[in-house]
Amino acid sequence: MSYLHHQELASISADFQETFGQLSQEQLNWKPSTEQWSIAQNIDHIIRINESYYPLIQDLKEGKADKSLLARIPFFVRLFGNLIYTSVQAENSKKLKTLGIWKPKSTPLSTEIIEKLVTHNEQLADLISSCHSLIEEGAIISSPANKNIVYKLERAFEILISHEKRHLEQARRAPVSLLKS
Length: 181
Fold this sequence. Notes:
By secondary structure, the protein is mostly helical. It has seven helices and two strands. Strands 1-2 form a two-stranded antiparallel ribbon. Helix 1 packs antiparallel against helix 5, helix 1 packs parallel to helix 7 (153-172) and helix 3 (39-61) packs parallel to helix 5.
């Protein structure tokens, strides 16, 4: 399983590098409208969401995870996991509201944001590998946004990877060819 996650994350990183790696800082930070994010903001958002899980995963590893009552009810674990997973699919064109903790920086980001994502995805792949035993035992994690939204750790990683793919597709829709270099 974690080998597949390594491959998917490496593929996402390569797609971001190939598609956006040659863009200027101005192009990466260009916003189609005030309501939409730039390519750089999409990347920053991905990193922010993924990193918000790290303390929760560390608590799981150390046996310090705070279990909500809903985590003990398999129906809710499956329901929340499936709802979130479905909502972050690249094919799902419905716009989602982003919580404040996951909003990207509003100031211009450097072109290094692409390499930051590549490094981040390598670290995320290593983290997923290090959680093999937790995944095997069906560990349950809470959402960083709400401790009552619970799902299996394995589903959390699937959500993060699908979320990255969604934002890759969102960034690809930006008309960067119309930008001035």
